[in-house]
Design brief:
By secondary structure, this protein is an all-alpha fold. The protein has five helices and no strands.
């Protein structure tokens, strides 16, 4: 689908919205980097997850089962990779596609994090893992991203 031609005011909103969407995507990359670093630190557990949520630390898990410790570490590494990849996809689609008014890029940039968050977020709540320290940075990235979505969408509307 071709990009639409917009008046300058719409183009400005489109560029601003795309920049906010890109920033939201890059915030996911930053979260993934912290996630990865914590895996290899003494903390071992994810950002914002402490003894109130998980009553065993890295040493206790390793003492109980080195294989379990390696498995948890590999899950952290893999998840950090997928979070970073999602953030990069959002940022690239937003900066190079949404900014140009490409509707396919906008739709894809919106659907990708919606699917990821719809799968990942609900599992945090039943087990008390939805701490502010853990999900707060994600929610901040989502708020920035959604502000960008709203502004970009207003700039993509066809002129009347």
């Amino acid at each position: 689908m071709a990009a639409i031609q917009n008046p300058p005011a719409n183009q400005s909103r489109l560029r601003t919205g795309a920049a906010l969407m890109t920033l939201g995507g890059l915030a996911f990359v930053g979260y993934a980097a912290v996630f990865l670093v914590l895996n290899f630190s003494g903390a071992f557990l994810e950002l914002g997850i402490g003894p109130e949520q998980v009553d065993k630390g890295k040493a206790e898990i390793e003492a109980f089962s080195p294989q379990l410790s390696h498995y948890i570490s590999h899950v952290h590494i893999a998840l950090a990779g997928f979070i970073a990849a999602t953030g990069l996809a959002i940022a690239g689609l937003s900066w190079y596609g949404v900014r140009r008014g490409e509707r396919w890029a906008f739709a894809t940039a919106v659907v990708v994090p919606v699917v990821g968050l719809a799968v990942a977020l609900p599992a945090h709540y039943p087990w008390g893992l939805a701490t502010l320290g853990h999900l707060g940075p994600v929610y901040l990235a989502v708020v920035i991203f959604l502000a960008g979505v709203a502004v970009a969408y207003s700039g993509m509307r066809s002129p009347r």
